[in-house]
Amino acid sequence: MRDGPAREGGSVEQREDLKRRFRLPGSGRSSAMFTVIPAIDLKDGKCVRLRQGRADDVTVYSADPVETARSWVREGAQWLHVVDLDGAFQGQPVHTDVVGRIAGAVPIPIELGGGLRTDDHLRAAIDAGVSRVILGTRAVREPDTLARLASEFGEALAVGIDARGGQVQVRGWVETTDCAATGLAATVSGAGVSTLIYTDTARDGMMGGPNVVSLEAVCRAARCDVIASGGITSARDIGALAALGRSNLVGAIVGKALYEQNVSLAALQSAAAPPDSSGDR
Question: What integer best gives the mean pLDDT of the chain?
Fold first, then answer.
């Protein structure tokens, strides 16, 4: 039984092993290092981007997500953000095999979101080589489980807050709830989750810059680390995030701007470097 006493929260040894394995950059640290994270969105086995998360507005960038992951490593990526879009829409993981091949092909950690609705889904993703698993819909539907999951998975657990107009969206962004993003951010950090990923879905894929006002509000509401997503297009956008001066804003996920070659990963990383950095990251 998945929820039986022997599995509830895992053993102390299992929890401590997870915490040792996943002392991860972007979890429970200061913003002295700001990480720019390329996104790999999976749909029908391909690397794609959606405009504002709409499944009917898709651009295919590669039929080989594993090679795409390798290419980001060659360009200097320190993390990869992978989303199982089909999993998000269907409510269960679809691309576990592809994700496992990506994890096995690159020497850097990857985080995964999309369709992770049960404890077994989380464990299967970690067994496949994922370093950080991202809850989305489940964090809204079952907030009372967050403290237990944060205890069991430690820094290998993140929560994704996807919002439009300040209201959280779930089920692959097809359903808008009455839950405020700032309220959920406070709940998530209060439960002990170490990393929150905030996406403004109206900005995602639109190449118009991030929603810094909403992002700052989420950073203020949360005591945990925050990673920004949605609309980040240029080095200037990275500068705008830095200008917020929020110590818990530790990274940014970038997708379409990189795939459309509007900006290079190196340029974004350079913009993210501390002012006194020599450029050696």
Answer: 86
